[in-house]
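Fold this sequence, please.
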Amino acid sequence: MTTDHRKKILDERANKLAIVNRVEFGQSEKREFLSFSSGGEHYLLSSEYVVEVVRYKEVTMLPGVDRKLAGIFSFRGSILGAYDGEKLLNGKNGEKVANHSIIVCALGSVQFAISCEEITGIQYRSLSDLLENSSDELLPSIIKGVFDDSARCIDFEKLVKDESLKIL
């Protein structure tokens, strides 16, 4: 067998394997989510938007800004805004909760963090099981829907484009 023939066979196999990896997720296929709690609610965030989860560290508060921005902190040489998960996701302004983790998120060049009470793990869910959010009156518009166990699925792309991240 010649070197050219071997290379041709390997190239064909590589192309076949690459096709398998290009298959898009369907509604019934399970996707990976980071599961966390904030403000007494359970949330799911698609893992494709999670850069890293870090132990909560003190953030530097900024005077005169909306309280949903807990402050800023240094992450790998960059300064990121850290949003209070309870205020950002629930719109609640209750008592200060104990935050134990910071979820660093990104969509393209937009990078920020969300503080949360607890990371509860990685879960695999099918979007076909999601009860879609059809009323902004009951849930914020950044919630895509709710699963049977009351876990709220965050529509991350909508969150980034929504007014929620704007600081007043």
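Residues 3-21 form the longest helix (19 residues). The CA atoms of residues 27 and 127 lie 5 Å apart.
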